[in-house]
Amino acid sequence: GEALWAAGLAVVRRLREAGFEAFLVGGCVRDRLLRRAVHDIDIATSALPEEVMSTFARTLPTGLQHGTVTVMENGVPFEVTTYRHETGYSDGRRPDEVTFVRDIREDLARRDFTMNAIAVGFEGETIDPFGGERDLSAGLIRCVGDADSRFGEDALRMLRAVRFAAVLDFRLALSTWRGIKRQRERLKHVAMERVAAEWDKLMASDKPDRGAALLIRSGLLANVKDPLPDTLASVKPDAIDIRWHCVKECRLSEADDIDVRWAAFLSAAGCGADEAEQLCRKLRLSSQRTKRISGVIGFDRLWSDRLMAVAGSAGKKAFDETANEQANAVQLSSLRASWVKLALRFGRSTAEDWLKMTKCRPVAYSLLAYAKDWTNEISVWKAAELAVRGDELSRSLAKAPGPWIAELLNELLELVALDRLGNDSESLLAAARAQMDGGNAS
Ligand code: ATP
Ligand code: MG
Prior knowledge:
It is an enzyme of class 2 (transferase). GO terms for molecular function: CCA tRNA nucleotidyltransferase activity; metal ion binding; nucleotide binding; tRNA binding. Keywords: Magnesium, Metal-binding, Nucleotide-binding, Nucleotidyltransferase, RNA-binding, Transferase, tRNA processing. The chain is of the alpha+beta class. It has 21 helices and eleven strands. The strands form three sheets. A seven-stranded mixed sheet has the order 3-4-5-2-1-8-9. A two-stranded antiparallel ribbon has the order 6-7. The protein has a two-stranded parallel sheet with strand order 10-11. A hairpin with a 4-residue loop joins strand 3 (59-63) and strand 4 (68-73). The radius of gyration is 29 Å and the shape is elongated. The mean pLDDT is 92. The structure holds adenosine-5'-triphosphate (ATP) and magnesium ion.
C-alpha cells in the first residue's frame, strides 16, 4: 500500500516536471484517508493523452476516447486520465460526450460522491471543494451536487452508494438517501452485468447484511432492468413481512465464501432453487456459480423437508437433548440416513456449502455437529469408488445391461457410505444379489 502510494506520487511528479498539473484522485485518496488498503491508483492530469504517452516510456492506450492512458512503472499500472467533464446523459447510462477541461475542480465536480472527489498533489496538498474529508470523518456518503440530477445522469451511482455503505460501513446522507428513493426507477437503464458487479462487491464486503437490507429498503432491488423473481422483488421492508424479518436476521458475514452468502441471502428471502437459478442467470453469473448457489438452496429445501418428516411438527428443533435417549437414537439414525443420501445426491461440496450456510442463520443449528460428522464419515462419494463395476454386476447376476445397473450401484453406494456394507467385491456382489432378489420378490 505504502509503496504503491509512493509510486503514484512519483508518476504525479514526472507529469509536473514535464510541465503539467497532476493529482492522485478517486478511490485511492479515499482509502488512504480512511487508512484502508490502497489497491489501484488513479491520476488526473491537465496533460492530453498523447502528452502523457510521450512523457512515459511504457504506456497503454486503454481508454483514449475517455482520455485514459495506462502508465506502466516497474510492471505496475497507473491509470492517468485527462481532466474531463461529461455532458448529456440522454440515456441515463453513458455520457453522450466527454469534454476535456482545464481545471482539476471541474474534473472533481463530475465525480459521484464527495469522498471520491478529493485530489492529492505531489506535496501532499489536498484539493477538496465539496467537503469530502468532512464527510469521510463523519462516515457519510453524499452526492457531489444535487442528488436527483446526479442519479438522473447515471443510475449506477445509486447502487454504488449502497455498495460503499456496505464496504465502508458508512451511512447515506439524508439528501442522498431521498434522492435514491425518488430516482430508483431509473435503475432500469443499467445493464444487469453492472448491477451484478456492484451487488457482488456488496456481498463480499464486511457488512453484507447492511448492504442487502439497504438494497431492499431503498427499493433498488425491485427496480432492476430484468425483473427479479417475484419472491425477491416482493420482500417488503416492514414489520409484518416474515421474509424481511429473515433477511434482517441473517448474518451473512459469518460465511467467508461469497457464493455461500448469496445462497444464505436468497434462501432467507424465500427463493427456491429454481428462482435462485433464474436470478443468477439474469445477473449473468457464471454457470458454475449459478449451479453452486442454486444447489445449496435445493439441498436446504430437501433437507428441511426430511427434518420435518422425521421430527414432525418440532421441525428444525428435531433433536432434543432432554428427550428420551432411545427415541433420539432412532431419530438420529434415520436423520443420518437421509443426510447421507442427500449428500451423495448433491455431492460433497454442496453438503459442505450448506454446513457453512447454517452459520448465517440467526439460531444455532442443533444438528450441525452431527451433520458435520456424518459428512466426514462418508468414505465413498461416487459409484466409481466402489470395488465393483457395472459390467461385473451384469455378469455376476447374469442380467443384460440396462438402467438397473446405475440404480443398483447407487443403492450399493448409499449402503457403503452409511457403513452398512463393506467396500469389497465379495460383500458388494452378495448385497447386489440380495437387493435384486428383494426387488424381484416385491
Ligand atoms: P473501488 O475501486 O474501490 O470500487 P473507486 O471509487 O475507486 O472504488 P472506481 O470505479 O475505480 O471506484 O472509480 C474511480 C473514481 O471515478 C471514483 O472514485 C469516482 O471519483 C469516479 N467514478 C467512478 N464511477 C463513477 C460514476 N458512475 N459516476 C461518477 N464518478 C464515478
Ligand atoms: Mg478504483
